[in-house]
Amino acid sequence: MRHFVYFSSKAVTSGKALSQGNLMKAGRMDIAIHSFIQGVFLSHGFRDDVKFHFIFYGMPDPPKHIEIQVKPDLEISKKDIATLIKKILYKYRKGEKKEVFSGCFVEKKSFLQVIDELEKQGSEIFILDKRGEDSREIKIKDNSVFIIGDQEGLPKKELKRLKKIATQISVGPKMYFASQVVAIVNNELDRRKL
Ligand SMILES: C[S@@+](CC[C@H](N)C(=O)[O-])C[C@H]1O[C@@H](n2cnc3c(N)ncnc32)[C@H](O)[C@@H]1O
Questions:
Q1: What is the DSSP string of 108-137?
Q2: From residue 42, how far is each of 45, 52, 99 by CA, in Å?
Q3: Which CATH superfamily is domain 2-191 in?
Q4: Which of 8, 23, 57, 124 yields a CA-CA distance of 20 to 30 A from 30?
Q5: What is the DSSP string of 4-71?
């Protein structure tokens, strides 16, 4: 299993907020969606060995953790991920980790809590950062977690805490789009047959 954690400080946190206006105005939900597409879609299928986690801290009801693993019975189209996220957010229920569709969960959980839980399950944690160690030189085990920031990067306070348990890795000398980083990491893991 591979885990991608995409953090966004502005992505909206209710179905209603996502149904109003365009995706760019919904806290750059377009970037979250591009990253998700690179995370789970292949040319002729899906990556069923990926769990994609969105952590959204935008208005009106942060934080929200949405977890998606594509299962055979999930109806999903690359052309309409916004509707999938919107429906998942609409079905959020206070106090629950709710499975809205097969493999799709929503709950109220902070960024650090999500990472703590993954670490407790035995996953190794990597923060994607241009100034990190070269990812090609790093040993990576199955079940690893890759944390990627939005257009604003990762929040300073959380980053300070995360650095104590995570390794910062770089996929190259340029500042890439979050979605490009997800594609590069997937490719690296494919090559390593992980
Ligand atoms: C568009 S970048 C964020 C730019 C933001 N202004 C900053 O300074 O962090 C989105 C995310 O992609 C990841 N990223 C971008 N370039 C990278 C690189 N060369 N190596 C590893 N991760 C990278 C980081 O996680 C970053 O938070």
A1: ---HHHHHHHHHHTT--EEEEEEEEEEGGG
A2: 5, 14, 24
A3: SPOUT methyltransferase, trefoil knot domain (3.40.1280.10)
A4: 124
A5: EEEEESSS--SHHHHHSS-TTTTTSHHHHHHHHHHHHEETTEE-TTEEEEEEE--SSS--EEEEE---
The model carries a pTM of: 0.97
Cα 31 to chain centroid distance, Å, stands at 11
Give the other-Cβ count within 10 Å of 43's Cβ: 4
The pLDDT tens digits of the residues spanning 43-93 come to 999 999 999 999 999 999 999 999 999 999 999 999 999 999 999 999 999
In the chain, where the domains are located: 2-191
Cα–ligand 1 centroid distance for 177 (angstroms): 7
